[in-house]
Every structure is written in structure tokens, then in C-alpha cells.
Specification:
The chain has four helices and five strands, in the order βααβββαβα. The chain is α+β, with helices and mostly antiparallel strands. Strand 4, helix 3 and strand 5 form a beta-alpha-beta unit.
């Protein structure tokens, strides 16, 4: 991994780079459509929300990875919980531990905020991603995600 890697909170100037990363992610996931305007708007909403955190991985050549984390309330465990979304590292920078650093920082942030659980969605065909998350204690659930688009 590059010694110049920095994991930091995202800010508005990062939105174009993050939207580009989301286009890489959505290109491999059947459930989502690439729409730069919508993704940019969603990123701005996340940045404005005190219940959300976006982490970026930055190197000398700019933002090369990101992870979004949002707070929710779980009635099942009676606590605040975190939902991890949009974990992506640019294709050129994969395999260097950048995703690991993003995920470890998100776990630390959730623990600092005393969230009782972290959850995430993963494409069930992406066995590499599933194995990656399992290394950090994530377990598959019988609960499946369902969507209804308004």
C-alpha cells in the first residue's frame, strides 16, 4: 500500500470524483443505474446529513476510494446502528489494502459513535466482496434487501 494514502472525511469538492467511483461500482451491479446527476445529488445529501459519514481514500493522484456510512435505529436491538453503503476502490487501485483501510476506519467510527451493529448490502454474486467482509466479522443474513422505487 502507498505510504501517501490518507483516509479522511469527504467534502463537497470530492463529489465529482466520488460520483465517478460510483459509476464504476454501479457498472458491476445489476440493481443500480449510472446517473451522475442523481449520484452527485445523493452524495451532497449525505454530506449535509449529521447522521452520515463519507470516507474517502486519497492518494497523490486524488480520490481513489470511498465508503458511505449512515445511522439508523434498530428496534430489534434497541440501539443506533450503522449501514455501510457504496464501498468502492477504483479498479486501478484495487489489491493494495485501500478497501481494508476504508472499512477499518468505518468500523472504528461506528464504535466511537457506540452504534450497536453495522450492516451492509453486497451483491451475492460478488464472492470476493463477501469473503472480504467476512474477514471483519460480517455474517450473511437470511434478511434480503427488497426495493420499491417511488
Amino acid at each position: 500500500m502507498d505510504d501517501n494514502l490518507i483516509i479522511r472525511l469527504a467534502y463537497s469538492d470530492d463529489v465529482p470524483a466520488m460520483a465517478k467511483l460510483l459509476s464504476e461500482l454501479f457498472a458491476i451491479e445489476d440493481d443500480f443505474t449510472i446517473d451522475g446527476e442523481k449520484q452527485s445529488h445523493g452524495l451532497e445529501l449525505l454530506l449535509q446529513s449529521p447522521q452520515s459519514v463519507i470516507l474517502v481514500a486519497e492518494m497523490q493522484n486524488g480520490v481513489v476510494g470511498m465508503l458511505s456510512l449512515q445511522r439508523m435505529i434498530s428496534t430489534a436491538i434497541g440501539e443506533y446502528v450503522g449501514i455501510i453503503e457504496d464501498v468502492v476502490v477504483s479498479e486501478f487501485h484495487r489489491g493494495y489494502g485501500i478497501g481494508t483501510k476504508l472499512l477499518e476506519t468505518a468500523i472504528d467510527e461506528a464504535e466511537r459513535r457506540e452504534w450497536g451493529r453495522l450492516a451492509l448490502g453486497v451483491d451475492l454474486r460478488n464472492t470476493k466482496a463477501i469473503a472480504f467482509y467476512q474477514k471483519y466479522g460480517f455474517e450473511t443474513s437470511n434478511m434480503g434487501l427488497m426495493y420499491r422505487i417511488a
